[in-house]
Every structure is written in structure tokens, then in C-alpha cells.
Design brief:
Blueprint (H helix, E strand, L loop, with lengths): L41 E2 L8 H7 L3 E8 L9 E9 L7 E6 L7 H7 L6 H6 E6 L11 E3 H4 L10 H22 L8 H15 L4 E6 L1 H12 L4 E7 L9 H25 L10 H13 L15 H11 L5 H12 L14 E3 L5 H4 L7 H14 L8 H7 L22 E8 L5 H11 L3 E9 L8 H13 L8 E2 L7
Parallel strand pairs: 4-5, 4-7, 7-8, 8-10, 10-11, 11-12
Antiparallel strand pairs: 1-2, 2-3, 3-5, 6-9
Helix pairs in contact: 6-7, 8-13
Length: 497
């Protein structure tokens, strides 16, 4: 569902919006692609890197490719192969359910090959469950760049106008490198292009209407599909809702840092009451502030690679990811271990060859302008004042990684969805560290009568697999088109991880 980021690539589900003005997208459906061939399914095969457990999980999955235009604005032009996978329904088939992966950077094909626990037994019985690798990701003409150059990505904690200018120069150099190593698809990886890919998959599956479940960044895909092709939508779930509505760069950073801070505060409250927390009885806020200071001196090991030092930004990011499930017990253990650690002495080797840059699509969907270092420094001061534990949110890298790049083909704007036969079902946790509950309420407001929000009163990024109540409500909606009453809420389930 979500990207597993490296130190050189921003995480995806940590991203947001900024204001670039209104863009009107037609609500009427365009003619379908002139030629969409039926998918030729074959058993998915083991791939390099698959474990023995993976090889067992792959059994029963089927893979195919679909040729789609590099640029849907030139449908008769060059094409590339989009990777698709499915599991067929076990009984009483309703149709195909297409899963929209998160990120940007998640592989939908991997979800089908080895991650079917994401879907309930009821959904696996009633639907052919289908997903795909979005353009520019994994097996679908992935964006690739020089690994050594990716490893040189400047710190998102910019400290001067010189560093600000160097970041812009680096971003432009990286973009040219990625374009040269990826090919023409690199310039057409925005979600509006992926909307057309999704429509082509629906047609290739022989489905007159789309049944869709999008997660995190995949909710942007679903929402923009419903906007473009409302008459083609049978049912649509948007889980952990991504708001593509208008907002300034400041509002984006405030929102994302605020929701991460809220989730960290929830962890601290749990730790104060739970003896299973390794930091029970300690001042967690003070310990965390000390770790950030020590990380700034290079004295804290990377939780994932303890032989190397981490930075305040990547330390914050590692903690942020542990709030996804959330993994509160593990987070307490990790912070205790880091507090007792000694400074690492190793330095990571310089990588060679090419490396996937799964973050690239974000800069084609969002514009987060910053005029100069003075404005950027103001944002940093504001974050330190308002969200002291997350003054370096992961979304800071979303801002700095897009500085100086070309105009965005899919700039953020409020949705304009009309004429759905069944309202979209949105689902969000109250304490979501990545896509805050306020994003879900905002998108629900944009949808009006075309959307219904299901609230999960608990914690974490994603809610379908955290609450039997949420899962049952979503399943009834997808299978039988039973829309829950407005204001429906599911009680919190105490995290166990």
C-alpha cells in the first residue's frame, strides 16, 4: 500500500498539496481508447529477490501486460507495457475489483502476487481482484536514475540561500539524468495519465463499470477517475484519503507535520499508561529532543542500518513510519535502543548503476512553490514552534525535491465530481500520521452528496485491516452497494504491534 523509502527517496504517502489556481476537468466521459486488447493472462512467475515464502504466496496469481500510450494526449503515438496482475474470484463472482496502490511507488502487482492478506475472504470470494504497477513504477517502465546521483540528494533541512540554490540545481540535474535513463515515459507519469491507464484496464477486463479500492496516494487516482468518468463508476472506496484540494505550501507542511505530531502524541500518551512500553515512566518528549540533537552531530545510528549514522530528518522519518500500523511497542523499543547507543563510525558506500526513483510522479501532480531561502526558513521556524517533535516532517522532502522543476501537468485543485449513481465511500482514521482526518473531511466536503465518510476512531495509516467494523462496512458497500448512513463511525481497536 505504501512506499518503503530509502534514504535517497522520499516516501510517498507522506505527501500533500499547494495552491496553483483552478483547473477545470470535463465531467463527461471521453470515447474509450481506439484499441484496447483483451489481457492475456499467465501464471505469475517467481522473480529475483523472491523468498521461499514469496514463491508459495505467488501460487494462484496471474500476470499480464497491457500496451498503453506513452502520452494519452497522443493515443496513436508510442506505447509501453503496463504490468497488471489478478486473482480470480472463488465463488459467486460479482466482477473485477481494481486496487489502486499507494505511494507513489507501491507495486500493485506485488500486492496481488504476495500481499492478498490485504483483502478479506469475502472480497476474494466475490471479485477478481486486480491491480497494476502505475506508469513509472516497478515493472511499468520504471523511472530510473543514476544511483550515485540519487545518493547525493541534498538534505531537506536547507540552511542558507546557497544551499537553496544548490538544491534547485541538483533537482534539475537529477531530472535530466532520470529522463535520459527512463525514456519518454518520464515526462508523462502524472495521475491524469494514470487515470486513462485505469480506464484502459477496465475496458481490457471487459467491465462496463469500475469497482475500485484506492489506498493513500491511490485515492488521488480514484477521485480523479470519478471526476473524469463518473458514468463508468460502479463503486469506489478511498481509504486514507489524499486531498488534492487547493492549499499553500505553508498549509501543506502545517497539515502534514500536525497529523504526524498528533500520532506521536498518541504514542506518548499510550507509553505513559502501558508498562509494555520500554519508555514507561520516562519523559518521551525530552528523550526524543535529545536524540534529534545527537543525530545532528552524527551520533545516532540509523535504525535500519545501525553501522551508519542517521540525520535528524531521516531519524524523524523512521519514527514516522513506525506510526503507520502503529507499532507502538516497537517504537518504544527502538527509541530506548537509540538512546543507549554509541556513535556509529561507518559510512555508506557510494552506490553504482541505476536505481528506481519512485518519488518522481509526485512532482508531476503537485506544485509546492518556495520563492527563496528566507521563505523556506520561515516554514522551518513555524514547524519548530507548532510541531516541536515533528519539526522535520517527511513531507519537507516533498517540498525540496520538487523545487525548480518544470510546470506541473496535474496541479492541485478541488474535485468536481458529478452524477455518480453510487456515492464514493471514504474511510479514514482519526489519528492517521500521513493522511490526516481533516483531509478526509475536506474531500468529503468537495464531493458533497457524491461522497460518504466512514470514520475510524482509532490510529494508523489505513483502516480496512485495523477494524472489523470498517472492513465489514467496506465489504458490504463493494459487494452489494450498501452505502452506510452519513456519520457512520467505527470504534477504535487498540494496537497490538
Amino acid at each position: 500500500m505504501l512506499l518503503k523509502p530509502s534514504r535517497t527517496i522520499a516516501c510517498a504517502a507522506i505527501l500533500g498539496v499547494a495552491s496553483t489556481g483552478a483547473v477545470v476537468v470535463p465531467a463527461t466521459a471521453e470515447p474509450p481508447p481506439a484499441v484496447v486488447r483483451a489481457l492475456q493472462w499467465k501464471d505469475c512467475l517467481p522473480e529475483p529477490g523472491d523468498t521461499e515464502e514469496d514463491k508459495e504466496l505467488i501460487r494462484g496469481s496471474q500476470c499480464a501486460t497491457l500496451q498503453v500510450p506513452v502520452d494519452w494526449n497522443d493515443p496513436a503515438g508510442p506505447t509501453f507495457a503496463l504490468a497488471v496482475a489478478r486473482r480470480t474470484a472463488k465463488k459467486a463472482r460479482v466482477g473485477s475489483l481494481i486496487f489502486g496502490p499507494g505511494g507513489p511507488g507501491d507495486s500493485g502487482v506485488d500486492r496481488i502476487r504476495t500481499g492478498m492478506s490485504r483483502f478479506s475472504a469475502d472480497l476474494q470470494n466475490r471479485f477478481d481482484i486486480v491491480s497494476f504497477d502505475p506508469r513509472g513504477i516497478a515493472r511499468s517502465n520504471p523511472v530510473k536514475c543514476s544511483a550515485a546521483l540519487l545518493a547525493q540528494r541534498p538534505s531537506p533541512i536547507i540552511g542558507s540561500q546557497v544551499e537553496f540554490d544548490q538544491t534547485i540545481a541538483y533537482n534539475r540535474k537529477l531530472a535530466e539524468d532520470c529522463r535520459a535513463n527512463t525514456g519518454p515515459v518520464y515526462d508523462h507519469i502524472d495521475t491524469l495519465q494514470t487515470v486513462q491507464d485505469l480506464n484502459a484496464i477496465r475496458i481490457a477486463l471487459g467491465e462496463s463499470q469500475l469497482t475500485f479500492h484506492g489506498s493513500s496516494y491511490g485515492t488521488l487516482l480514484g477521485a480523479q477517475y470519478a471526476e473524469r468518468y463518473p458514468k463508468n463508476v460502479r463503486a469506489m472506496v478511498l481509504e486514507s484519503v489524499f486531498d488534492h484540494g487547493t492549499a499553500t505550501t505553508r498549509q501543506f507542511l502545517d497539515a502534514e507535520a500536525g497529523t504526524a505530531q498528533d500520532s506521536f502524541d498518541e504514542f506518548v500518551k499510550w507509553c505513559a499508561s502501558a508498562t509494555t512500553c520500554a519508555l514507561h515512566g520516562r519523559d518521551v518528549h525530552a528523550l526524543w529532543a535529545d536524540l534529534l540533537t545527537r543525530a545532528g552531530r552524527g551520533e545516532v545510528p540509523d535504525p535500519q542500518r545501525p553501522q551508519y549514522p542517521t540525520t535528524p530528518f531521516f531519524l524523524s522519518y523512521a519514527v514516522f513510519r513506525l506510526l503507520y500500523a502503529p507499532q507502538w511497542v516497537r517504537l518504544g523499543d527502538v527509541l530506548q535502543q537509540l538512546d543507549a547507543s554509541t556513535p556509529p563510525t561507518g559510512q555508506p558506500p557510494v552506490p553504482s548503476g541505476l536505481q528506481a526513483n519512485t518519488f518522481a510522479p509526485f512532482c508531476r501532480d503537485f506544485s509546492l512553490p518556495v520563492r527563496d531561502y528566507r521563505e523556506f526558513a520561515g516554514y522551518l521556524k513555524r514547524l519548530a514552534r507548532n510541531t516541536p517533535d515533528f519539526k522535520y516532517p517527511g513531507q519537507l522532502l516533498a517540498v525540496t525535491s520538487c523545487l525548480g522543476l518544470r510546470p506541473v501537468p496535474n496541479p492541485q485543485r478541488n474535485l468536481a465530481v458529478r452524477h455518480l449513481t453510487t456515492p464514493i465511500l471514504l474511510s479514514n482514521a482519526i489519528h492517521d500520521p500521513a493522511t490526516g482526518y481533516n483531509w478526509a473531511t475536506d474531500v468529503a466536503r468537495q464531493l458533497g452528496r457524491n461522497g460518504v465518510l466512514l470514520t475510524y476512531q482509532g490510529w494508523g495509516h489505513g483502516s480496512y485491516n485495523k477494524s472489523p467494523c470498517v472492513q465489514a462496512t467496506i465489504d458490504k458497500y463493494l459487494v452489494s452497494l450498501q452505502v452506510p448512513p452519513r456519520g457512520t463511525s467505527c470504534p477504535a481497536v487498540q494496537p497490538t504491534g
